[in-house]
Amino acid sequence: MRVLISNVYSYKNKGDAAIVISLLREVRRAFPDAEILVQTADAKHDEGKYGTPITSSLLWTLLSAVRERPLAERMRVAASGLIGLHTYLGLYRQFGRAPLWLVPRRLHQFVRDNQQADLVIACGGGYLRTASSGLRDKLLLHVTCLNFLAAKYLGKPVFLYSQSIGPVHGEWQRDKLRRTLDQVDLIEPREDVSVRFLQELQTSAKTVPTADPALLLGDTGQFPEQHVRLRPDRLHVGLTVRKWFKTERELDAYIRAVAQTIDYLIAQHNAEVFYVPQVIAENFGDDDRLIARRVHDAVQNKECFTVVDADLHPFEVIGLCGRMDIFIGTRMHSNIFALINHVPVVAIEYEHKTKGIMRGLGLEPLTVDIQGVTFDTLRQKVDMVLADRDHYRSLIRQHLPDQITESRRAINVIKEAYEVPAAD
């Protein structure tokens, strides 16, 4: 059989890469004879990273590949591609066939990849959400949904694996998302916040809650000794940051709060702090190292704050997070990488998935809203952890096995749902 894993972002986001690696493991466990194709928005850089063939996603072909061109050209490429693809898929759904010439040549491989698949699994992640009700977000949501929904129009079973879903903005987006989800075979939300959002959305699709697949990678850590040296007798603190704000003033306030917390840890707790390079997708304008360097500029005790800027393997990122004594994470998967190694985490929440995942591990009180983060609020959470690290480690050990079990059963549910029609 042939399995197509769709909606992958980029290997340069090590959290997303960890999800793909874990999903590939699980697919091979459930379908040991399967041929697997990974459909990504960054095929150029992802080639050779996962040990399986790589192909380009609809998101890349219609939007990202032409993002440097003039606006009129970008609109023409997107419009012609969407019109041709929708026409082809509509005819195929109605008559069971359609001429491929209806589709622009750049989309031929995308169509063939979906036609040749026996099973399509939309990769886990948080991409079924928008930031506003604007035209750009409407287009992005439409293309993101169509990336896996095309397979349904071609008669393929489609399963949404380990998803954070919502929020979306405006009635058009809600209706679009609801109609899309109603057509898939199964949705697996990865935290209770997404479960509640789906209930509010009133989708008719079968829904089975699960947990994040990166939780299954606790045995994979590889400490990057060539890039990091840990000094003995220090408190080792890991950190991730990101750009998330609409205004420079808000971003400056966030950077200042993080920098002051670093100085506090160094001065009061003999800490050395390491920025962990989880997202370095500079080709997409998504490179957290730029913010980490600004934090470094704002820190007074620079000799005890290291910005690790190497392109680490996801297992090395996991290994680095796992060697920390505590972790302060804005990127949610860096928090997960620490948690699977029983490292207590203070999570800076930028999307509702953060609080949902922390709640599942009994750690919701250690969550800080990124919109209101200050030195005082961040220090308070850090002090909570430092006052009783053993307690928080105990909570992690208590709740983590159930979360791992939830994550492990996700592919089993997909396998059962896929095989039931054949059994009938």
Highlighted features:
16% strand, six-stranded parallel β-sheet, 49% helix, seven-stranded parallel β-sheet, alpha/beta, globular
Structural write-up:
This protein is an alpha/beta fold. Helices cover 49% and strands 16% of the residues. The strands form three sheets. Strands 1, 2, 3, 4, 5, 6 and 7 form a seven-stranded parallel β-sheet that branches. The model has no long low-confidence stretch (mean pLDDT 95).
Question: How do the helices and strands line up, and which of them pair or pack?
Answer:
Layout: E1 2-8, H1 14-30, E2 35-40, H2 43-46, E3 54-56, H3 58-62, H4 71-95, H5 108-116, E4 119-122, E5 125-128, H6 135-153, E6 158-165, H7 171-181, E7 186-189, H8 192-201, E8 235-240, H9 248-269, E9 271-275, E10 280-281, E11 286-287, H10 289-298, E12 305-307, H11 314-322, E13 326-329, H12 332-339, E14 345-349, H13 352-360, E15 367-369, H14 375-387, H15 389-423
Parallel strand pairs: 1-2, 1-4, 2-3, 4-6, 5-6, 6-7, 8-9, 8-13, 9-12, 13-14, 14-15
Antiparallel strand pairs: 10-11
Helix pairs in contact: 1-15, 6-7, 9-10, 9-14, 11-12
